[in-house]
Amino acid sequence: MCTHSGERPFQCSDCGKSFYKQWRLKMHASTHQTPKTFTCDLCGKSFRKAVNLKVHQRVHTGERPYSCHECGKSFRQALNLKIHQRVHTGERPYSCRECGKSFTQQSSLNAHGRTGERPFACELCGKSFRQAGQLKIHRRVHTGERPFSCRECGKSFTQQSSLISHGRTHSTERPFYICDRCGKRYADQRNLKLHKCGFS
């Protein structure tokens, strides 16, 4: 996948800038066709749209008309305020199709997609990874190795993080949800509900 390999096969013939998707190149190419007719009186910078000039002029005036109701931070553009508010809401609408990681803005997702190569390839299935440790964990899918065992119940796992998560089910610090039919206990109420569905 181009976004994760860093490959950018679509190049602009006017300026040489390259893109990983053809539609992005087409959008970019249109910027070379429209003249910049709106010029800033203070610094001489030119823009293709009057609205872009208006936003730019706030650099000189210091005007920041868009304020966050949560923390009071202000912005020159409404879009920047919208992106900022995701810090408070926890919204991360841009997700990587390859690894599932999510981001507050498209540019962060784009940068994530370009982060390095995947030089560590599994010799059995061809799946590749950025780190040798990730490949080592992946190989256990093929070998069946589960080196991390729970002292309480003997259940084993391919990763230490999975064992740690599992260990919480034995912890007395967390509330347990107990099935009133068979006595089986769950650390997560959702899992208990799924379990109870088996009785109906």
What can you tell me about this protein's structure?
The chain has 8 helices and 14 strands. The chain is of the alpha+beta class and 200 residues long. It has 2 domains: 112 residues, Classic Zinc Finger (Double Stranded RNA Binding Domain), CATH 3.30.160; 78 residues, 2-Layer Sandwich (Double Stranded RNA Binding Domain), CATH 3.30.160.60. The strands form 7 sheets. It has a two-stranded antiparallel ribbon. Strands 3-4 form a two-stranded antiparallel sheet. The radius of gyration is 26 Å and the shape is elongated. The two termini are 44 Å apart.
**Rough outline:** elongated
The residue fraction in helices comes out at 25-40%
| Number of continuous helical runs | 8
Annotation, overall tally of beta strands: 14
Which whole number gives the mean pLDDT? 81
Low-pLDDT segments, ≥5 res: 1-5
CATH superfamily of the largest domain: Classic Zinc Finger
Structural class: alpha+beta
H-E string: HEEHEEHEEHEEHEEHEEHEEH
What would a concise description of this structure say?
This protein has 200 residues and is of the alpha+beta class.
Topology at a glance:
Elements: H1 2-5, E1 10-11, E2 18-19, H2 22-29, E3 38-39, E4 46-47, H3 50-61, E5 66-67, E6 74-75, H4 78-89, E7 94-95, E8 102-103, H5 106-113, E9 120-121, E10 128-129, H6 132-143, E11 148-149, E12 156-157, H7 160-167, E13 177-178, E14 185-186, H8 189-197
Antiparallel strand pairs: 1-2, 3-4, 5-6, 7-8, 9-10, 11-12, 13-14
Family: Belongs to the krueppel C2H2-type zinc-finger protein family.
Function: May be involved in transcriptional regulation.
InterPro entries: C2H2-ZF_Transcription_Reg, Znf_C2H2_sf, Znf_C2H2_type
